[in-house]
Amino acid sequence: MSELIDQTELQSRAERLVAAARNAGADACDAIAVTGVSLGVEVRDGKVEETERAEGDDVTLRVFVGKRSAAVSANQLDNPSDLAERAVAMAKVAPEDPFAGLADPDMLVKQLPELELLDSKQLSADELTNIALEAEAAGLSVEGISKSGGASASWRLAGVVMATSHGFQGAYLSSRFGMSMTAVAGDGTAMERDYDFDSRTFFEDLDAPADIGRRAGERAVRRLNPDKISTRTTNVIYEARAARSILGHLVGAINGASVARKTSFLMDHMGEAVLAPGLTVVDDPFKRRGAATRPFDGEGTEASVLNMVEDGVLQHWYLDGASARELGLTPNGRARRAGSGTSPGSTNVTLMRGEKSLEELMADAGDGLLVTDLIGHGVNGLTGDYSRGAAGFWFENGKIVRPVSEITIAGNLKDMFKRMVPGSDLDNRYAAAAPSILIEGMALAGN
């Protein structure tokens, strides 16, 4: 598969841009070249609805003139000098940024680690079609399923090359495979839908298409004839798929850019307990076959595995060079390319598993709501106030008794984080990985 992307040519593009920028008067600069190819198939009712193949190249040059900077992007690189001169001219009239600049040379990656990023398997449109059709057929075979919401299968290959004026050069290829199926149960106004999906770096790690479709169908049927519940305070358990959103809110709150802008509700809590005792959140840029595994960050800096939260206590912010300078800290290799510059972000972040299964969490809680679906984005990043629409299942004495919907869950993330009890069912497939989470005493708005 690697012959589809010529990294030698990508490297040459980046190096030519860096040289051209220095010749045009840039004090420092970096260039990143990204290319990719993808193929996806969508089916519905046993027929192909869409087959899409995409190929693209993009190169971005970022230049610094003193503390002024600018960036320009192009799809083709016919004349590096023109692009470089334009970028330098833009930088000279840009406002000064005291925190702008390339990474400290001492922080650069010296030797790229060997990582499992690339599966050499190629899938044809026919193979992807057969995968999607198999998933759809399995979903439709579930008793109670009335129609298909569609199924899909895809693969993607991406190449990244980076070069800087102070000596960094790095490149890597990565692959991604995915499939999904959406099933619809019931008829008329009583229809319910649900889905299942999988996405992996290596094709061999994907769940079987029949399992994806069957789970989508079973999930949809379980949601039929939902009840509404009255407003109350109760225990809430987020199943693993929904629990990733809770982890995502934590990741956003400990982003160094938000802290520097003073827009995070955790900005004054470094070194303090922000989660329940015993809880640990790990960020691992080198996770085996991880969705966000990478050998270097958006500035070419070295990273390490970090316990962002350890035993409930906040240990680190996510930092790129600019946010670290603004906060007077050291970057930790979490820079992402973002438009004309970088921004800090997570890699493979995991809330470590607890000791009890989902069933045991329900038994401990007694009565409450098992959340399987969340709606909306009602989170205030400055205050931590939380309000999300939800659907799922009401359980009593630790056993599911009926599906429920049209519920709003409310609270404050500061308090919610400290009451989290993680289960043992860690879903480790995605860039944000979490087990089921029990939070006692949540406010529910119903009828």
Automatic annotation (TrEMBL):
Gene Ontology molecular functions: metallopeptidase activity
- Pfam families noted in UniProt: PmbA_TldD_1st, PmbA_TldD_2nd, PmbA_TldD_3rd
Record organism: Roseibium alexandrii (strain DSM 17067 / NCIMB 14079 / DFL-11) (Labrenzia alexandrii)
Q: Which UniProt keywords apply?
A: Hydrolase, Protease
The UniProt family comment states: Belongs to the peptidase U62 family.
Domain Metalloprotease TldD/E central, by residue range, is 120-224
Q: Does the keyword Protease apply?
A: yes
Superkingdom, taxonomy of origin: Bacteria
**Per its UniProt record, what InterPro entries does this chain match?**
Metalloprtase-TldD/E_C (IPR045569), Metalloprtase-TldD/E_cen_dom (IPR045570), Metalloprtase-TldD/E_N (IPR002510), PmbA (IPR047657), TldD/PmbA_N (IPR035068), TldD/PmbA_sf (IPR036059)
Q: Does the keyword Protease apply?
A: yes
Q: Which GO terms describe its cellular component?
A: cytosol
Q: What is the lineage of its organism?
A: Bacteria, Pseudomonadati, Pseudomonadota, Alphaproteobacteria, Hyphomicrobiales
- The chain positions of domain Metalloprotease TldD/E C-terminal read 232-446
Q: Where is the Metalloprotease TldD/E N-terminal domain?
A: 29-91
Q: Under what name is this protein listed? A: Putative Zn-dependent protease and their inactivated-like protein
